[in-house]
Amino acid sequence: MNPPSAQASLLRQTIVESGDGRRRLGAGLVGLVVLGLTLGATAHVAVHAKRLELAIALGEQERIFRELTLQRRHLEIEVGMLKDPARVIAVARDQLGMHPPAPEDIRALGQLREPGKSCRRSDGPDPSGAKPATPHRPSSARRPLPAARGEVPGQGLEAGRE
User: Fold this and answer.
1) DSSP string spanning 95-153?
2) Measured between alpha carbons, how far is residue 86 from residues 83, 91, 92 in Å?
3) Which residues, at least 6 apart from 119, have a Cβ–Cβ distance to it below 8 Å?
4) In the chain, which end has fewer C-beta atoms inside a 10 angstrom radius, N or C?
5) pLDDT tens-place string over residues 76-91
6) The whole model's pTM is what?
């Protein structure tokens, strides 16, 4: 058989060889753990950066919303001032030259008829060839006024959008 020193040498080689495999396995495992931790940390930082980016964008959109809301309030106030009946009358009188009619400009409907003729249409055709006038009925005449419906002026559809 082998001398005792040869046996010891063979035994040492076997231990060293089996130890190298374990060391390689341990180093690979450590490398995988480090790689996993690195990827996890990178993903965490990326998610945090995206969260900050979205928070900044949300803040900007909220600022724009506040500005637009303020602008809307100012415009609603301006519309209310422009719709003021006293202002409308002043603009009509001063800028457009409109004025209440003089008493001589007011005519009753009965004064427009020729004496002796009735208001009814004749059954025959008009000798002048003109078509008989049909009464015009605006669509607003079919609906009651807002006050008659129990509504307050200025609180129509716009009030429901706020």
Assistant:
1) TS---PPPGGG---HHHHSPTT--SSPPSSPPTT-PPPPPPP--GGGGSPPTTTTTPPT
2) 9, 9, 10
3) 113
4) N
5) 999 999 999 999 999 9
6) 0.41
